[in-house]
Design brief:
CATH class of the largest domain: Alpha Beta
Strand order of the largest sheet: 8-9-7-10-12-13-14-11
Strand content: 25-35%
Order of helices and strands: EHEEEHEHEHHEEEHEHEEHEHEHHE
CATH topology of the largest domain: Udp-n-acetylmuramoylalanyl-d-glutamate--2,6- Diaminopimelate Ligase, Chain: A, domain 1
CATH superfamily of the largest domain: NIF3 (NGG1p interacting factor 3)-like
Length: 338
């Protein structure tokens, strides 16, 4: 039986929560209806006509595209022009499109955190703080023990509370996840679920990551490692090849606005994409290195991450009617001479 688009959206927003997105970013369901049925979902970095054709050929009813298919306001819909033709194709084939974008950049275990892990950064912290939310304690009672492990990563802590005639638990979760967790508890057979706001504790989030490397290296050696890890034929860097590197900042995609954040974090280098000429000159003046493997290379791992997260949640909820697949096409627009 097909799963409604809205249920897939709810799953995405459990880890890439909309409040994580940068102000003004275009995130959310951009095409389709929340009620339409889905049995196969494709993930992609960019939604190009070729990716749309791939999704159609694989009978996908939904695409999760990291970059927005509708970013600037539409003042016309000409189907003889590229954007109009793409939207027409998606509508004709009844394909829903959801965009997480910077919500996935910021998310714990999102793109930036995974890139930091790939580079060997220890205990990465946000490069720029964006916001915070209150923590919630759920006071839960039930007649029988509840299978709380099925709720997964939405619970931070679980405590069993002594109670003579009932099962009682104190569960710690975030304000954003509390509604979903509460519903899961009722579905499991909870007798009561009471929320208690913990004003002294909170969860904070931010974009980018920065931290120490496991072992100190040089700028040239780190650049070579990034070239191999991200499988790029070429990259650019700013700074002396033999300069020492122990603190590394990463910002997937376009990180030109975050050089000063990396400087304040005492980073030796910022790894990012789309570096402008004047940003490179500014980095030289600050004395911080830059490594630019490209926008596509720093963000293409989002396809795998989305599939992994969604498969995990579907398994937690016992849903087997929907399949998640990553696009096999590269949307890198550049060719490299090496």
């Amino acid at each position: 039986m097909p799963v409604p688009v809205q249920r897939i959206v709810d799953w995405i927003e459990r880890f890439a929560q909309p409040q994580f997105a940068l102000p003004g970013d275009k995130v959310g369901l951009q095409i389709g209806s929340p009620s339409q049925g889905v049995t196969r979902v494709m993930t992609t970095l960019d939604l190009t006509p070729e990716v749309a054709d791939e999704a159609i050929a694989q009978n996908c009813q939904m695409i999760i595209a990291h970059h927005a298919v509708i970013f600037r306001p539409l003042d016309k819909l000409r189907t003889d022009e590229p954007r109009g033709a793409l939207l027409q194709k998606l509508l004709v084939h009844n394909i829903a499109v959801y965009v997480p974008h910077t919500a996935m950049d910021v998310a714990p275990d999102g793109i930036n955190e995974n890139l930091a892990s790939l580079l060997g950064i220890v205990d990465p912290r946000p490069l720029r703080q964006l916001g915070s939310e209150q923590r919630i304690m759920l006071d839960v009672t039930s007649e029988e023990p509840l299978p709380l492990h099925h709720i997964g990563h939405d619970l931070d802590e679980i405590y069993e509370v002594p109670c003579k005639s009932l099962q009682r638990y104190h569960l710690m979760t975030s304000e954003g996840a509390s509604r979903h967790v509460g519903q899961r508890l009722w579905d499991m057979g909870a007798r009561s679920v009471d929320e208690i706001l913990l004003r002294t504790a909170h969860h904070s989030w931010g974009i980018g990551r920065v931290g120490w490397l496991v072992e100190e290296t040089t700028l040239g050696e780190l650049a070579e490692k990034i070239k191999q890890v991200l499988a790029v034929p070429a990259l650019r860097f700013v700074g002396a090849r033999d300069s020492s590197v122990s603190v590394v900042a990463v910002l997937c995609g376009d990180g030109n606005r975050f050089v000063s954040d990396a400087v304040r974090a005492d980073a030796d280098v910022l790894v990012t994409g789309d570096v402008y000429y004047h940003t490179a000159l500014e980095a030289q003046q600050w004395g911080i290195g830059l490594i630019d493997p490209g926008h596509h290379a720093t963000e293409s791992l989002v396809k795998r991450l989305l599939v992994e997260h969604l498969r995990e949640i579907a398994e937690e909820e016992g849903v087997s009617e929907v399949e998640f697949v990553a696009s096999e096409l590269s949307t890198e627009p550049f060719e490299f001479l090496t």
